[in-house]
């Protein structure tokens, strides 16, 4: 018998059910977001980094992280190479026979595990910049198998098979590797893409990046130019090609004569100079040339714009040149009007910041704006065109300015810092972002916080370090007066050779 109506099971109202479920989900998400925000607020100001560095202790090499923790014990006779400080790929060299010139290599990770074991040799690809500073291609390794070479990335992905007889960097150029196959040279990029097929006797860079193209030498010894896709720009028919170009003009040499030519090989200029030193990029149809070891300006028609009377000339911007006369540098325009007096040991123009940086015999700097007005005087200690600031030492104080020469505080430039350098009564200490004293004024000298959270402090002639919480990591122990860079990670101080980028400890 069926039950009466009041005993029937109630039906679910699905709209209400969905509404309740959605409300619960919203509440959970809200709690999660609040928790995340609170956590973010709590951690705001903390400095974290996963960088790795080579370290040196007791004449042995190892690896530390950005907190000063030892990752690989210092136990290797040769410096451990870290191609990219953000990746835990450490290249170790061992079993070295200096007489025979033989050695073994292996790669370790942060767990001290050997990786990429399928290869006979694993090496970073070293390069140098125009100032001879050493650096490494940061996401590619050269590997060897069965006597041939290929490249992999730092995750072990094969980018090219081991098919080449040689792989080396092209000096001063990023993302361009010179390869040799069947006795001929070509170029690949850091992803293994062939830019120039291996078909030349030799190959080198034309400019300062791989987009500028490459100077190539054919089997008969003649030179030409190809672009980064291997397309011929100049045929291989010249005795020599200089690394001087601009506005689709190139400098070649035939029968010991320097000639300015177009891309199609048409001669533009072939007389009136000893050497062409620069094709002006900001001023069309003009070159800098030398005659009797003095510099001048000439149009591509042969018309002399500036007689060769200067000891040096280089283009800064359109119509403006840095010049040297009487052993001193100044700035002139194309009408030889002096814009900056000839009284400096050096002048550099920063195109991105549009400023001139001068240096005198005592290494003091004057910073000039684009109207040649002196805006800052002191010792330039840092300049970052990405962040847009200048750091300069004025008297005994370090100050920050933007490229409009507006003074900025350390907090403006580095808002994530937890410690800010402060000075009182001739002593240094540190405050937090709100100005509250964190480290008392007891130090004779001190450095600003580095990107890993540490500050270097000096007391009684010795240096030590403090962490981002204001706690002593290393009591002042190290005598570092001869060091060019004072920097710490925990108890480790920066090495004496700043080009090697390593940290040291007693």
Count of β-strands: 46
The percent range for strand residues is over 45%
Shape annotation: flat
Query: What count of helical segments does DSSP give?
Result: 2
Global Rg: 31 Å
Q: Mean pLDDT score, rounded? A: 91
Question: Runs with pLDDT <50, length 5+?
Answer: 1-12, 33-44
> Going across the major beta sheet, what is the strand order?
30-31-32-33-34-35-36
Main sheet characteristics: 7 strands, antiparallel
What is the oligomeric state here?
Answer: single chain
General description of the model:
- The chain is mainly β.
- Helices cover 7% and strands 50% of the residues.
- The chain is built from two helices and 46 strands.
- A seven-stranded antiparallel β-sheet has the order 30-31-32-33-34-35-36.
- Residues 1-12 and 33-44 have low confidence and may be disordered.
Write the layout of secondary structure elements.
Blueprint: H1 14-43, E1 52-57, E2 60-65, E3 70-76, E4 90-97, E5 102-108, E6 114-115, E7 121-128, E8 134-145, E9 148-152, E10 166-169, E11 177-181, E12 184-188, E13 194-200, E14 202-205, E15 214-217, E16 223-226, E17 232-238, E18 240-246, E19 249-254, E20 257-262, E21 267-269, E22 275-279, E23 286-291, E24 294-299, E25 304-310, E26 312-317, E27 320-325, E28 328-333, E29 338-344, E30 346-350, E31 355-359, E32 365-368, E33 374-384, E34 389-394, E35 397-402, E36 407-408, H2 410-413, E37 420-424, E38 427-431, E39 437-443, E40 445-446, E41 455-459, E42 462-466, E43 472-478, E44 488-489, E45 492-494, E46 502-504
């Amino acid at each position: 018998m069926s039950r009466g109506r009041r005993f029937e099971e109630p039906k679910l109202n699905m709209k209400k059910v969905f509404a309740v479920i959605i409300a619960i989900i919203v509440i959970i998400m809200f709690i999660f977001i609040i928790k995340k925000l609170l956590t973010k607020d709590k951690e705001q100001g903390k400095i974290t980094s996963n960088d790795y560095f080579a370290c040196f202790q007791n004449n042995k090499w190892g690896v530390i992280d950005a907190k000063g923790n030892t990752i690989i014990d210092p136990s290797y006779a040769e410096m451990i190479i870290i191609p990219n400080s953000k990746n835990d790929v450490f290249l170790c060299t061992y079993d070295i026979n200096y007489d025979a010139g033989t050695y073994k290599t292996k790669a370790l990770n942060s767990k001290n595990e050997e990786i990429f074991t399928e290869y006979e040799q694993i090496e970073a690809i070293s390069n140098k910049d125009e100032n001879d500073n050493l650096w490494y291609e940061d996401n590619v390794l050269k590997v060897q198998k069965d006597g041939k070479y290929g490249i992999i990335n730092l995750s072990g992905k094969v980018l090219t098979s081991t098919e080449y007889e040689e792989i080396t960097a092209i000096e001063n150029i990023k993302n361009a590797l010179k390869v040799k196959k069947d006795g001929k040279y070509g170029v690949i990029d850091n992803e293994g893409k062939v830019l120039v097929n291996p078909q030349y006797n030799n190959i080198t860079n034309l400019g300062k990046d791989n987009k500028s193209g490459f100077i190539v030498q054919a089997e008969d010894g003649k030179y030409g130019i190809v672009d980064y896709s291997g397309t011929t720009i100049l045929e291989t028919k010249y005795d020599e090609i200089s690394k001087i170009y601009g506005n689709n003009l190139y400098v070649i040499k035939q029968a010991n004569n320097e000639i300015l030519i177009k891309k199609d090989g048409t001669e533009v200029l072939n007389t009136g100079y000893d050497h062409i030193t620069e094709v002006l990029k900001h001023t069309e149809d003009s070159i800098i040339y030398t005659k009797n070891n003095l510099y001048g300006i000439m149009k591509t028609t042969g018309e002399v714009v500036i007689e060769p009377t200067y000891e040096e000339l280089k283009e800064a911007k359109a119509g403006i040149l840095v010049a040297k006369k009487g052993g001193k540098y100044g700035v002139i325009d194309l009408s030889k009007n002096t814009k900056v007096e000839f009284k400096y040991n050096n002048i550099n123009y920063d195109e991105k910041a549009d400023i001139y940086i001068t240096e005198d015999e005592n290494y003091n700097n004057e910073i000039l704006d684009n109207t040649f007005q002196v805006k800052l005087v002191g010792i330039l200690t840092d300049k970052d065109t990405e962040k847009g600031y200048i750091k300069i030492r004025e008297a005994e104080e370090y100050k920050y300015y933007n490229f409009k020469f507006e003074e900025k505080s350390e907090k403006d430039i580095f808002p994530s810092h937890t410690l800010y350098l402060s000075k009182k009564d001739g002593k240094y200490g540190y405050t937090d972002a709100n100005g509250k004293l964190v480290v008392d004024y007891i130090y004779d000298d001190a450095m600003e916080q580095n990107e890993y959270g540490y500050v270097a402090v000096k007391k009684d002639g010795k240096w030590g370090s403090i962490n981002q919480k204001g706690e002593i990591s290393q009591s002042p122990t190290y005598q570092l007066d001869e060091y060019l860079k004072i920097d710490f990670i925990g108890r480790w101080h920066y090495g004496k050779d700043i080009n090697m980028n390593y940290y040291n400890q007693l």
